[in-house]
Design a protein that fits this description.
There is one protein chain. By secondary structure, the protein is an alpha/beta fold. Strands 2, 5, 6, 7, 8, 11 and 12 form a 7-stranded mixed beta sheet that branches.
């Protein structure tokens, strides 16, 4: 059952697959390549990405540009149909306005531009050092390990506490030593990982069992891990207290163990290269006026909210659904060469594994297909409205059809082929081809969903497909 918990879905209510209900409700599938007109439309959306450059503030003035590397995150930075949002985006745009006010050009027609470059968490600092950006933002804690290679601005926020967050129903933790021998899920690139390593050194000296540091996937942001702990998928994680409290109104079941801290007195900052003393001075002046505690900083954090709700996928009722259908999914996943847990997560995302589910468009059952779609000769399965076995087989076979026709690429890993197939199931194969082309033309990897094709998807159709695939993966 442990494998199930690690792979099972945290469902965001109402985020099934309505984006392309018209397209995935009938089998008028488009050709496996875009038309010349469609390619032209996608290419017009490509944004120029500046080449790698290493320099100080005088060079940025000549370029009239500052590049900020940001993690793709619901907390810090996201794109929804071309609209940029998040805490890091708000601070970056404030920096742009501040530069144009305090560092104007002699030619009044020239303006500073701040460019946001979404970057995987574990690549923020390497890409900063390589010159792909001038700042790395996203709630970075100043640590000894990081300071060996990079510099930091004056702190944006001080006295940061790293709290222990546990699953619903967990007992109150009274002392940090109670973590001895327990599994704690954190990203290897996080300050939490570094501080857990330090804690284990202390435990060793005390003769205690070490914390079992479980490396979480780098594609999972802190709010993702909180969501998974909230649903009981993971038992324990660590988060900055302000982030945990920010998400607590949404993730109401997780237990924030206030009073027991992995680390206290931390400082959050923007990272920059050590070879940028001019830039550091400019940034410090900006931070002084915009840090947390200032009017701007406090208003920005209060304004950030998320209204969606989550469902505990491991509740007793949901587990009963899982146990009742796991054999059916195993059978058809084996036939059509998919991971049965991934297909079950998709079924949960579509219908909460409810064969009685009916959409306004007429889609039925666990996999939410139209009977006419399933009966089409390409799928050739009838009775999906009454038979859960046939419904799941039809959804699995349709997924295989999408994967074979649009993702027959030897460069794709099995996981990415499946994730891209989910995107096609949700947004339509025509849109999938647009996502991949826009990613490639934007300098991203068209064969990798997370951090690459998902960014293009968000620009073209919004957050729907990004959340759909992400929830299934979680």
């Amino acid at each position: 059952m442990g494998r199930f918990f690690c792979c099972w879905l945290v469902l965001v209510l109402g985020s099934g697959s309505p984006v392309w209900a018209n397209e995935h409700s009938q089998l008028e599938l488009p050709p496996a390549q875009l038309s010349a007109q469609e390619e032209s439309e996608v290419d017009a959306m490509v944004l120029p990405v500046p080449q790698a450059w290493v320099g100080d503030f005088d060079g940025m003035r000549e370029r009239r540009m500052v590049r900020i590397l940001v993690p793709y995150s619901k907390t810090f930075y996201l794109i929804d149909r071309g609209r940029q949002e998040g805490v890091a985006y708000a601070f970056g745009k404030a920096f742009e306005a501040w530069l144009n006010k305090t560092q104007p050009f002699a030619d009044k027609t020239q303006r500073w531009q701040v460019m946001f470059l979404p970057t995987a968490r574990n690549e923020l600092l390497p890409k900063l050092l390589a010159g792909d950006g001038d700042i790395a933002a996203g709630g970075l804690t100043i640590t000894d390990g990081r300071q060996r290679t990079i510099d930091f601005t004056d702190p944006v926020a001080r006295d940061i506490r790293e709290v222990i967050v546990t699953a619903p129903g967990s007992a109150k933790i009274q002392h940090i030593e109670e973590l001895a021998g327990k599994e704690v899920y954190v990203r290897p690139s996080s300050s939490y990982f570094e501080h857990l390593v330090t804690l284990n050194e202390r435990f060793k000296a005390q003769g205690l069992a070490p914390v079992k540091i479980m490396p979480a996937n780098e594609n999972l942001e802190t709010e993702d891990l909180l969501q998974m702990v909230n649903a009981g998928l993971f038992g324990i994680t660590v988060a900055d207290q302000h982030i945990a409290q920010l998400w607590q109104p949404l993730y109401t079941e997780m237990q924030i163990q206030v009073g027991v801290y992995l680390h206290q007195g931390g400082e959050l900052s923007w990272a920059l290269r050590k070879s940028s003393p001019q830039f550091k001075q400019v940034l410090s002046a900006f931070v002084k006026e915009h840090k947390i505690g200032s009017e701007f900083g406090n208003i920005t954090l209060r304004r950030f909210k998320n209204s969606k709700r989550v469902l505990n996928a491991t509740s007793q009722a949901e587990m009963a659904k899982f146990n009742a259908l796991v054999g059916v999914f195993q059978k058809h996943a084996g036939t059509y060469d998919f991971d049965h847990l991934m297909l079950m997560a998709q079924g949960f995302q579509e219908s909460q594994l409810n064969q009685a589910a009916r959409s306004r468009a007429g889609a039925v059952g666990v996999m939410q297909l139209l009977p006419s779609t399933a009966a089409d000769p390409a799928v050739g399965i009838k009775g999906i409205d009454t038979s859960v076995d046939k419904n799941i087989e039809a959804g699995s076979k349709y997924m295989r059809l999408l994967a074979d026709k649009y993702l027959d690429d030897p460069e794709l890993t099995p996981v990415n082929r499946t994730l891209l197939s989910f995107a096609a199931y949700n947004a339509g194969p025509g849109n999938l081809m647009k996502f991949r082309r826009l990613a490639e033309k934007s300098g991203l990897d068209p064969n990798v969903w997370f951090g690459n094709v998902e960014q293009a998807a968000a620009r073209i159709v919004g957050r729907e497909t990004v959340d759909y695939v992400g929830n299934i993966y979680k």
